[in-house]
Amino acid sequence: MGAIDPGLCRACRNARIVTSGRGSTFWLCELSRTDPAFPRYPPLPVVACDGFAPRAPDREGTSSEQGAEP
Asked: Is 60 among the domain residues?
């Protein structure tokens, strides 16, 4: 079974990949730390989000991602 497409989280600067001790990966919304309106681990794929903020482009001009592909 392949990885689930995270949708908007893939390109959002507020999202971070978390890997459990058993090797499972989750997309954490950092906005959940300060705003209860945002779920800590949103159901994927995220197709609409009021907190979406694009990541800054990296040196090649594409959006950079934190962590590895889950």
From this structure: no
Residue with tokens 């592909």: 69
pLDDT at 69: 47
Residue 5's alpha-carbon distances to 10, 32, 35, 36, 60, in angstroms, are 8, 20, 24, 24, 23
Which residues, 6 or more positions from 25, have their beta carbon under 8 angstroms from its beta carbon?
A: 3, 17, 18, 19, 70
67 φψ region: left (φ > 0), alpha (ψ -120 to 50), beta (else): left
- 29-48 pLDDT, tens digit per residue, is 999 999 999 999 999 999 99
Evaluate whether residue 70 is within a structural domain. no
Check whether the bond before 42 is cis (ω within 30° of 0): no
Q: Which of 47, 49, 53, 44 is nearest to 13 (CA)?
A: 53
